[in-house]
Every structure is written in structure tokens, then in C-alpha cells.
Amino acid sequence: MQLVVGAMLVDDLDVPTRLLAAQRTAERDVPVAAGPDGRLPLWEFPGGKVEPGETPRAALARELAEELGIAVELGDELEPPDRPTWPINHRYELRIFLARLAPGSAPPDPQRAPDPSHQQVRWLGVEEIPDWPWLPTNRVPACLMADRMRWS
């Protein structure tokens, strides 16, 4: 199985109030999923594949720099309740880490990133998260974060 990492990028690691959603470009050679209305692509946590010899945290920092042009501070991992990774499909599994922009980092901007793979990003408030058109693999973790935000 190929390990993929994703960043649950929030405005504050201790008391988050906003979560970043990223929408992939449909032109790339990366599979994208359509929403119930057939529109492509759905939204996701930014991230990517872990390369051989790379730790998941190092891979995530690299992917965010390449795809969004940002530097981040990584927080805790958000693990599923019943397994070590979030299943994507029969070929990929996902690990999700909380993250925030590092001090001095520019805001996420797919247009200025070295290897842009997203057409847009959007900061979501707690009330927007549950109904946002997430990739199926990202919906449950996003809703868990919305619950955490409500109780912070």
C-alpha cells in the first residue's frame, strides 16, 4: 500500500477556528473524484505521497511547500478510532496531521507554488465544514475537526 499524508491545516493548533480545504486541478494526472452533482473535483486536505526513505512528517512538509508554497508547523496526528490509517482505496492509505502556518510563512496560494496541484483553497468556519463537498476519505476527519472546533 502506498502511504499518502494530508494536512488538516488550521489557524491555531490549540484552539482552531478555521480549517483549510483545497480543490485539486482536474488536469493533473492525479485521480480526482466527482461530487454527487458530477462536478469535478471534490475538496481535500492538501498533501501527497510519501517517497521512499521519507518520514510522513517530512513528506507532508515537502508536499505543502511544493503545492501551496507554504511552510508549516506540524501538530498531532489525527488517527482513526479503529485502525492506524484512514483507508482511501485498495492501493492507498492516508495519515492526517494537524498543521498551522509557520511564523513568517506566506498564506497558501496555489498560483505561486512551485508545483501547483490545486486550483483553489478556502478557509472554512466550523459551520461550513460538515456540508462542504469533501473527498469521501476526508469527510469523517473533517467532521471530527468541526466537532473539536465547537468544543474548543
From TrEMBL:
Top-rank lineage group of the source organism: Bacteria
Classification via InterPro entries: MutT-like (IPR047127), Nudix_hydrolase (IPR020476), NUDIX_hydrolase-like_dom_sf (IPR015797), NUDIX_hydrolase_CS (IPR020084), NUDIX_hydrolase_dom (IPR000086)
Keyword hit for Heme: no
Keywords from the UniProt entry: DNA damage, DNA repair, DNA replication, Hydrolase, Magnesium, Metal-binding, Mutator protein
KW Transmembrane helix (keyword) present: no
Pfam families assigned: NUDIX
Signal peptide from the UniProt entry: none
Nudix hydrolase domain span: 1-147
Coiled-coil segments: none
EC number(s) on file: 3.6.1.55
Single GO MF annotation: 8-oxo-7,8-dihydrodeoxyguanosine triphosphate pyrophosphatase activity
Cofactor(s) demanded: Mg(2+)
Family as reported in the entry's similarity comment: Belongs to the Nudix hydrolase family.
Protein name: 8-oxo-dGTP diphosphatase
Organism: Kytococcus aerolatus
